[in-house]
Amino acid sequence: MSKILLLSVVMSAAIWSTNASAEQEHFRHMMFRESPYAPYRGIYPMDGKDTEKAVHYEFSYDDEGRVTRISHKLDDQTVPLHGGFDTFIWFAPEVRIAYSDGQEVHTYYGTDGVQIHAHGQVWRAVYSLDADGNRTSLEFFDKDGAPSANAWNITRYEWRPSEDGHIFEKRFNPAGEQEKMRPVLEFYEVKLEYDRDGKLSFMRNYGLDHTPTNNSSGAGIDRITYDLNGNFIRWQVYDKDGNAVEGNRPMVHLGEHLYDDKGNKIGMRGFDRHGVRMPFSWGAIMEETSYNQQGVRIAFRSYRPDWSLDANFAFDYSKDLSRQLSIKSMDANGQLKDDPRLNGGAVLQFSQDDAGNIVRTFKRADGTPITSDDE
User: Fold this and answer.
1) Where is the signal peptide (predicted)?
2) Which of the four, 198, 272, 319, 360, has the lowest number of CB atoms within 10 Å?
């Protein structure tokens, strides 16, 4: 068996847990996943006594050490994600996993324990497994059991091993056509290269005809680097021949994530192929995120290349973190400021109607509401 196929078996069976006999474990964060081929992995393990003080992920296991549930919690209460960066390719407060011969089924739940559609119309995500337990495909279904698509217009993933022991991945949309990895990442078929610890190190674009290919930005390879805690700290962009380029959506050669000592991502910045700081394609030279003591995002700021403030958002929540109350846009002096990213307003308020649906209300800095006629 190739090393990556063997690794996949190990990942499916035990790498989910640092202790296969444990019924539950707790982690502050989840390891980055570019592809749903990889399993969920917790990083920054927590002592049980700390779970009442900070948001975290609770992993539950069956008698075989396989993960059966992951919940985002504060103490014993499941809470929303509130803009966290950890659950890429998950997008729900809780996922439950069931196993059967040849299948692994994921379903998604809200904070009240009621099943929900996640990331588009994904009610069930069904992995097919080969005889060795390796993932070979993933299909999405809606509440009625019909094939459905996620928010990236993907309805099916397919994986097969490469001759050198790595993994090829293709994605398909509802029309059966190959689909990009994400709307903002123009890689079609990709070769996923994992290191000996199961972390994705290289992703190579093979286009639509199984040939190393540059996309429209000139990018053909992404390299991903991690620190010793398992944080995704850096990506680097190359063309298909391995030459450094500025490409993909951010249009930098090297992007860097900065973390605090608890693993919260507090900053992001970019560099060109010569190591010189440069802005991302959306104009920011630097992005900063702040967190409260419970590990929840409370502020986001971005700066223009002249280091003037471009965005300054504050996020407010209920005391128990069960609901987000508002997003506010402010100037450098902390005064409310209208912003096009808030529909031209300075405040976005969240409330609930009698049916429990989230109602969004935009208001200008002077307090006047923005009506549908204004939009």
Assistant:
1) 1-22
2) 319
